[in-house]
């Protein structure tokens, strides 16, 4: 196989995971990331089941992830006086292993930085497919041509917009926004990584969570699509404060702290719906292709999708027409685990009756069955052992 060149947009989770496998199979990889450096912090993410673990073990990163794991967080839902109403187990929200997103990104970056070209502080502005490949223009860098381009740049993917069409064609707004703020206590590696407890309080269409391993604060609230700049932290703080004005419990204290946090991230909750994840010489992986905000499978889907895409390209000796068709077929089926779920409706029911029903459901056998269904779905793929297949050729 000749050395095909691949440009990957996004240095979060899916991008470095794909870069790892592509380099291993002999591809020349460039990763472009609009941030100035690997992004630290962020909420905790998780992996669950034998499929996720198999991919991570084949990458040689499982032990590092385990060493950097957080403790799972039980969420205790309370009323305005702080009295317990229901419990959502950390075994449900934290999978088999939970790790801060920034720690995971750093691990994957370290495993690829010496072998792949990383370009930070830049982004793609144009894609033109030619007989030689894909001609790419950048916001700051010199234009270049690559054999293939992969968008691993999240639910608001620039690559998807350029190669497939506007975001509104593929991303469905789920009627809610979420905000994470304040570093998790486990962002400090000296802090014991033990099981934690977070406390959550609901009002119709709103949820506020304080503490736990994912972040110091999490807000989730119902709202139509809002107009604001995603890099304007003051605007994001104002939006949260406006939607939580007048709510009791610990919310006034939380909003006072929110005004002081530098690490605030507000975004809409959306679901990506696509019939295919490839177009010509361009492919999508991770949230850009099959994201469903807070759906519980995003990180695992990103890592498995990267593994499958790279493996199929290697098996096809770089023939993207063959590999992309196989990738579409495999991941369309597996990505159904993201499903039509809406975490916003579950976590922040729109009525007081809905909140009471959710609390009852958390203590019922139905919730146990739903948890088992999620565990089974995470493994519902015939995962090929690409390294072994390629080694045997």
Automatic annotation (TrEMBL):
UniProt name for this protein: 2-polyprenyl-6-methoxyphenol hydroxylase
Lineage start: Bacteria, Bacillati, Actinomycetota, Actinomycetes, Mycobacteriales
Alphabetical list of Pfam families matching this protein: FAD_binding_3 (PF01494)
Superkingdom assignment: Bacteria
Annotated FAD-binding domain residues: 5-315
Gene Ontology molecular function, alphabetical: FAD binding
TM ranges: none
InterPro entries on file: FAD-bd, FAD/NAD-bd_sf, FAD_aromatic-hydroxylase
Chain segments annotated as coiled-coil in the UniProt record: none
């Amino acid at each position: 196989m000749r050395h095909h060149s691949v440009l990957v947009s996004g240095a979060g989770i899916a991008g470095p995971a794909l870069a790892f496998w592509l380099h291993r199979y002999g591809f020349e990889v460039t990763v472009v990331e609009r941030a100035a450096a690997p992004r630290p912090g962020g909420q905790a993410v998780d992996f669950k089941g034998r499929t996720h673990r198999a991919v991570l073990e084949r990458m040689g990163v499982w032990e590092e992830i385990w060493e950097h794991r957080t403790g799972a967080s039980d969420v205790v839902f309370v009323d305005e006086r702080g009295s317990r109403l229901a419990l959502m187990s950390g075994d449900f929200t934290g999978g088999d292993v939970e790790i801060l997103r920034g720690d995971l990104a750093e691990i994957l970056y370290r495993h690829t930085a010496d072998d792949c070209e990383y370009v930070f502080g830049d982004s793609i502005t144009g894609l033109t497919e030619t007989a030689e490949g894909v001609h790419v223009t950048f916001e700051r860098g010199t234009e270049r041509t690559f054999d293939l381009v992969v968008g691993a740049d999240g639910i608001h993917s620039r690559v998807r917009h350029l190669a497939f069409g506007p975001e509104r064609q593929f991303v469905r707004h789920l009627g809610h926004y979420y905000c994470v703020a304040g570093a998790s206590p486990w962002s400090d590696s000296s802090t014991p990584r033990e099981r934690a407890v977070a406390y959550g309080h609901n009002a119709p269409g709103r949820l506020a969570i304080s503490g736990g391993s994912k972040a110091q604060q999490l807000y989730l609230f119902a709202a139509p699509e809002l107009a604001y700049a995603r890099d304007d932290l003051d605007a994001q703080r104002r939006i949260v404060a406006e939607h939580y004005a007048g709510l009791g419990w610990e919310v006034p204290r939380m909003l006072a702290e929110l005004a002081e946090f530098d690490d605030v991230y507000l975004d809409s909750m959306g679901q990506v719906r696509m019939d295919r994840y490839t177009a010509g010489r361009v492919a999508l992986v991770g949230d850009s292709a099959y994201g469903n905000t807070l759906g519980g499978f995003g990180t695992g889907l990103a890592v498995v999708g990267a593994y499958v895409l790279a493996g199929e390209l290697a098996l096809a000796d770089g023939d993207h027409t063959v590999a992309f068709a196989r990738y579409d077929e495999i991941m369309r089926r597996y990505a159904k685990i993201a499903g039509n779920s809406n975490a916003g409706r579950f976590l922040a029911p729109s009525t007081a009756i809905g909140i009471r029903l959710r609390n009852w459901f958390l203590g019922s056998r139905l919730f146990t069955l739903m948890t088992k269904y999620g565990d089974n779905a995470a493994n519902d793929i015939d995962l090929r052992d690409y390294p072994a297949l390629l080694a045997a050729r």
